[in-house]
Amino acid sequence: MGNGGSIKTYNCPNNYDNNKFLQIVKLFEKIDKNKNDILELNEIKEISCKDINNKIIILEKELDNEKKNLDNEIKRLNDKMNEKITELKKQKLNKEKTIKKKLEKYRNMNDEEKCKALIEKISFDKKEIDFWKFFTYMKDKTNEINNL
């Protein structure tokens, strides 16, 4: 590990853990085979391989995490979509029930009930229909006049 005195030539930076700093100094001295305080290419082979292997491991984990995140997001969106589909189906069924009730009501009306329903729909006072009330009701229904 060197002559032991070289640790004293390096000063730990302010606001840095002294124990961690000593670990780094010891590693540096271990790698520095020439003891010239410079790491040369032939001296860093082992640590560079370990460093690159560590980066590979980290990137593989990151890749796995991205896949898991994607899978989780897809599942979340599918769940949300399924909830929305269920809600839409429920709304559709309720709307169909309402429409079917109205259909049944209108199909079962006698002539007098049909007349009363039209008066209630057109007239503000629900008693009689004058021309302007009739006009207001029919102005957007001119395409239906031929069917009447």
Summarize the structure.
This protein has 148 residues and is mainly alpha-helical. Helix content is 66%, strand content 0%. The chain folds into three domains: 1-39, no CATH class; 44-108; 109-139, no CATH class.
Task: Report what the structure shows.
- This protein has helices spanning 18-31, 45-107, 111-122, 131-138.
- The chain has 148 residues and is mostly helical.
- The longest helix has 63 residues, at 45-107.
- The N and C termini lie far apart (107 Å).
Features:
148 residues; 66% helix; disordered N terminus; 0% strand; 3 domains; rod-shaped; mainly alpha; 4 helices; single chain
How far is the N terminus from the C terminus?
107 Å
Major sheet details: none
By DSSP, the count of extended strands is 0
Q: What series of H and E elements makes up the topology? A: HHHH
Structural class, judged by helices and strands? mainly alpha
Shape: rod-shaped
Number of helices: 4
Q: Quick check: average pLDDT?
A: 89
Q: How many domains, as an integer? A: 3
List low-confidence stretches.
1-8
Strand content: under 5%
Radius of gyration equals 42 Å
Helicity, as a percent range: 55-70%
Topology:
Elements: H1 18-31, H2 45-107, H3 111-122, H4 131-138
